[in-house]
Amino acid sequence: MTTDVLVVGAGPVGLTLAVDLGQRGVRCTIVEQKPAPEFLPKMERCNARTMEIFRRMGLAGKIRAAGLDRHVPMDVYVALAMNEPPLLRLKYPSVAEAFEAIAATNDGSMPLEPYQLISQYTLEPLLKAEAERLPCVTVRYGCEFVSLSQDAESATATVRSRGGSTEEIQAQYIVGCDGGGSVVRKQLGIQLRGEGNILRLHQGLYYCPGLFDMIPIANGPGKGRHYHIADGQSTFLIMQDSTKHWTLHAVVDSAQDMAGQFERTVGVPIRYDMLYVGQWKQNLLLADRYRAGRVFLAGDAVHLVIPTGGLGMNTGVGDAIDLSWKLDATLRGWGGRKLLDSYEVERRQIGDRNVGASRYASQGRRKWRSQYRPNIRDASPDGQATRDNLTRIADVEQRKTNEMIGAELGYRYVGSPVITDEPGGPEHLFRDYIPTTWPGARLPHVWLAKGTPMQDLIGPGYTLLRLGRSKADPSALERSMLDTGAPFETLTVPDEVARDVYGYDLILLRPDMHVVWRGNVPPEDPVALAALVTGNA
Ligand SMILES: Cc1cc2nc3c(=O)[nH]c(=O)nc-3n(C[C@H](O)[C@H](O)[C@H](O)COP(=O)(O)OP(=O)(O)OC[C@H]3O[C@@H](n4cnc5c(N)ncnc54)[C@H](O)[C@@H]3O)c2cc1C
């Protein structure tokens, strides 16, 4: 069998890549060792940037319809149990409230789409169905990647079906999206480095349809998405998208302990089924390389973070979307060699940064949890002092996990060979997002007249924005861009708000909506600029 791109692994990252490639008309095949998507809990929050990406792919509406109801609060609690007064409530807007805040803001500081809670076991079948709908995507479950070889012309993978028969798939490119234990990465001899096996936890999945409606229980925490139990076992209850399923994480000795742990966390008798218990470990690891020849790596195959901050899958979706259009451009012939070279330069720095963001958030979590003392439930001055101290520290430290809008939206590709170099640039901040059009940054969201978002007007190719009352003549740049063979259009936007937020008259965007050049007058050498941004310089 032959294909243009072989994607290994149908987790959320591989499926996003396959769908995006398929939407661009790239012939691709995705192989997955499992016979079908599994009903196992993992991620549950698509962040704002991921939802913007899914919006561009035409999927945001479907994902919201399949995910958590938009009116359910997203609050986070620290408590002793669900039926006891919370020690701390951190209030976060529901999706509906977040949409209202976004609608009322037009200074570039907000994303176009807020986050969405959707369980990984809901998202994967949805993305699989999208991939299967695309005529140029072949989806093969029950097909395990075994080994690969490559030469200057192509890459060949050996795959094994569940019956045991093996087969070769020849591709122009292979992308390993096969998760933390990536066989593709191991075959390439690429190492993960950092801190491995930091903490081992059990995770349980519970079907407990009555719990959500009972909340608040007694004077306990109200409705929300995360309930951190202030104990010595790092116990943490998460509402899943249906509100009928819940997951609990805890450091316990054995799987059997997870039933009692759930009952103690809820605090009152309730009917439930424990559907699954497994173990997972916390890692902060980054791969040395994201590519070897015609083989690329994306998602957990190259970065493993602690779920604090929810940056695992979300970082992987960013990898997929960075790589997809570059593969398309290269296969179509207008993308120069440096375009695919830029993938590792751009995405590895974001992987590195998000491993750091996850460390920052998890250290915060550990800090408040280290204030736990066995007397925390005592009705004594000492017990009260323990509760007060832990709550005070959690009020600062737990926020690190839940308030990382800078890590989500503010990443910028520095030192990329396909982005113009403007020395300097704003600092990368985890907690704060400051809108910028510094080359390498994502185009900030701005509302135009009649409530049209600028991002919705940006097409799938390169876009030159002519903003405000600019009289600049962009025709030489337009000609140079079209001469490369890349898809290109000019968008004239007289809107003054956009000009004010973006700060420049002319902005050149690439297909993933990242800025590659900006100026108030046309570039001195438009041919050189066009060659640079398409990887042909
Ligand atoms: C408890 C928990 C909570 C989390 N919460 C969040 C969150 O809220 N937000 C977030 O962004 N991230 C979260 N994460 C992280 C997130 O789940 C991962 O980052 C994400 O699953 C990575 O996606 P992936 O597609 O790269 O890899 P995976 O999801 O691991 O998918 C890899 C796929 O490849 C397949 N595969 C492996 N080997 C082969 C082979 N040889 N041949 C064929 N197929 C193969 C596997 O079967 C699997 O389907 C959480 C993780 C955990 C453990």
Q: What topology does this entry show?
A:
Layout: E1 2-8, H1 12-23, E2 28-32, E3 45-46, H2 48-56, H3 60-66, E4 76-79, E5 88-90, H4 95-103, E6 116-117, H5 120-133, E7 137-141, E8 143-150, E9 155-161, E10 166-176, H6 183-188, E11 192-195, E12 200-207, H7 211-214, E13 226-229, E14 236-239, E15 245-250, H8 257-266, E16 273-281, E17 284-287, E18 291-292, E19 295-297, E20 303-304, H9 312-332, H10 337-369, H11 381-397, H12 399-402, H13 405-409, H14 454-457, E21 462-467, H15 475-483, E22 488-493, H16 496-502, E23 506-509, E24 515-519, H17 526-533
Parallel strand pairs: 1-2, 1-10, 2-7, 4-13, 10-19, 21-22
Antiparallel strand pairs: 3-6, 4-5, 8-9, 9-10, 11-17, 12-15, 12-16, 13-14, 14-15, 17-20, 18-19, 21-23, 23-24
The structure holds flavin-adenine dinucleotide.
Which short descriptors sum up this protein?
eight-stranded mixed β-sheet, 23% strand, alpha+beta, binds flavin-adenine dinucleotide, 537 residues, seven-stranded mixed β-sheet, globular, 33% helix
Question: What does this protein structure show overall?
Answer:
- With 537 residues, the chain is an alpha+beta fold.
- Strands 1, 2, 7, 8, 9, 10, 18 and 19 form an 8-stranded mixed beta sheet that branches. The protein has a 7-stranded mixed beta sheet with strand order 5-4-13-14-15-12-16, sandwiched between helices. A 4-stranded mixed beta sheet has the order 22-21-23-24.
- Strand 8 (143-150) and strand 9 (155-161) form a beta hairpin.
- The structure holds flavin-adenine dinucleotide (FAD).
- Residues 8-14, 31-34, 42-45, 120, 144-145, 177-179, 183, 203, 280, 299-300, 307, 310-314, 316 line the site of flavin-adenine dinucleotide.
